[in-house]
Amino acid sequence: MWWKEPVTTLKGVGVKKAAELAALNIFSVGDLLEFYPRQGAYLDYAKLKTIKELDVDNSKQIFKATVYQVKNGYGASRRSYTSVTVRDETGYATLYFFGGQRYKAQKLKPDTVLQITGRVRQGRTTKSVSEVDVQPLEQDEGKTPGIVPVYALSGNLTQKNLRTWISEALRLAAEDLPESLPAKVVSQCNLPDRYTALKNIHFPESWEALRRAKQRFVFEELFLLQCGLLYYRQQSHDNREGIKHAADGALVKDVMQGLPFELTAAQQQAWREISLDMQDKKPMHRILQGDVGSGKTVISALALAKAVENGYQGCIMVPTEILAAQHFETLEQYLQPYGVRIALLTGGMRAKARRELLLNLELGLVDVVVGTHALLEEDVRFANLSLTVTDEQHRFGVEQRARLSNKSANAPDVLVMTATPIPRTLALTVYGDLDISVMKGRPPQRKPVRTLCYTDERRREVYAGLVRQVQAGRQAYVVCPLIEESDVLAVHSAQRVYEELKRDFLQDIPCALLHGRLKGAEKDAIMSSFAAGELKVLVSTTVIEVGVNVPNATLMVIENAERFGLAQLHQLRGRVGRGSEQSYCVLLTAADSPEALARLNVLHESEDGFYLAEKDMEQRGAGQLFGLKQHGLPDLRIADIMRDVDVIAQVRQLAQAQLRTPEDWAEIRRLVEMQFGERFNMIFNT
């Protein structure tokens, strides 16, 4: 069929142009038609402002101008920038590019015609444009009547190239274009047909026609994504016979009564949901979302106890060896007093100890095993596995979860845990194959972490305070965004900060540098020394973000905090405040704008990870925070899982209503495969 024909079948697309299209992931005629104009990038030349007409109110505006000159310079705090002066028949404006955006500006040549989007203010001599996005245009553009699309291109491709080839592809589509949604859905939801929508997303007849075309493709992408998730769920576990556990017995009750604290209301609710799932014959597939320090581990201990008291085994998989050791110690405290046999399996074990553990596991002489990715190896076999727990879910893909489940003869119950807070509607997409339990808040025995935000002028004062904390017997983290100095980013690197602290502040204090380039054994040795209290200060990149528990660490200093998202800062902050002493998180920032300081002060105001995640997504977009690929999901071409939350809720209900018969499931698989193909590896690679 023509949809899958290579782009070279189109007039004017030779080998060179095909290679440039391939760089944009355009290989077939169908790929070309699904290469939509950039978000919001349509020009109505009749409505474009001149430079003279631009408002200087810091609002985002779009205009057309020609490059006059390009210069490099330095601003406040020696921050480098590139300025591009542009002009039209009414005057001049200056575009400012900072950081990693500078390379785009430096490639611009005089007399290049640009479509420019940015925030406009009044500068000293000209209008000043920041947060700039530019798109080169052909010299004669602007004479075309109507609404014109603008595509994100690279290489020597031009807007005219794309429009010409897409016009030809649309002529093919007019003759033969299969529908990509069930006919009853198109009718029920009053959507334009596929051809009309494609025509109007590339060459809109009107702004209303464009709106309806976008609506159609956002709906289509999210509807088929939800159908794919439901299909995966039906194939992977709804059709498999699970293990029915009895109601909570003596072991679960003993473990609960032996806890040195009362469960919070949120913990009790989460345990009720998990316990009822385990008592059902249908296998549990549940995610437990708990904020940093909310007490998820104790809930996993109760679930493991329930498996053991029913005569089965359980396992818990975590991303690092140091985290595995910490979970092992915690579960020993909760479970071992009641006769539960617990073992630790990691990649660094001696061969003899590993062979002995694997034999005991296969013979049923181990009840619960805690491990890393080592649990996934082929020679790890269980006698009677009924529960798998995966901690820090975002570090493991769907395929790894499935491999762990396949170590049971029946379909085991699956519990995944994450400290990454995601709003519920968004979680329906990211974790669409799972039921969701949410634990908000933290146990009352934990004091809130005091969060302070300072500019770089107070760095020495902050580090003097760090020394006082260490002298009082405490430990501290210092987190930096990069390992080494960068020519592009003016930030404090971990290497430089470590050397500076050793020279100026920590001459007689044991400290270490931790980063992702170290070998696993080196990282584990450093973390073990820090956890044991031998090291007092740890200078690190974000490798310490995941679940390390050092109750004596009471201070975290984060350099260049403006470089991190709110959700990530909250995760990092969760490494302190785990003991009985008051803990502090100090955010150091080189940014001096009121907007940057206000963003960081949100952390001072709130310890609610869900609230902070929503704020983060408002500012940065969900795509940056929750990459879909790591969850086995396809990247989205036009939908946005944060912006389109209302559509997600609508299409999930509609998808559930559509999938009734085997014929429905077969049709949906065909449509999902047509839409996403290999990009949806959750379905097609498992």
TrEMBL record:
SUPFAM superfamilies reported in the protein's UniProt record: Nucleic acid-binding proteins, P-loop containing nucleoside triphosphate hydrolases
GO terms, biological process: DNA recombination; DNA repair
A Pfam family the protein falls into: RecG_wedge
Span of domain Helicase C-terminal: 472-618
Catalytic activity: Couples ATP hydrolysis with the unwinding of duplex DNA by translocating in the 3'-5' direction; ATP + H2O = ADP + phosphate + H(+)
Limits of the Helicase ATP-binding domain: 277-439
Keywords attached to this entry: ATP-binding, DNA damage, DNA recombination, DNA repair, DNA-binding, Helicase, Hydrolase, Isomerase, Nucleotide-binding
SMART domains in alphabetical order: DEXDc, HELICc
Known EC number: 5.6.2.4
MF-aspect GO terms: 3'-5' DNA helicase activity; ATP binding; ATP hydrolysis activity; DNA binding
NCBIfam families attached to this UniProt entry: PRK10917.1-3, PRK10917.2-2, recG
Family: Belongs to the helicase family. RecG subfamily.
Function text: Plays a critical role in recombination and DNA repair. Helps process Holliday junction intermediates to mature products by catalyzing branch migration. Has replication fork regression activity, unwinds stalled or blocked replication forks to make a HJ that can be resolved. Has a DNA unwinding activity characteristic of a DNA helicase with 3'-5' polarity.
Protein name: ATP-dependent DNA helicase RecG
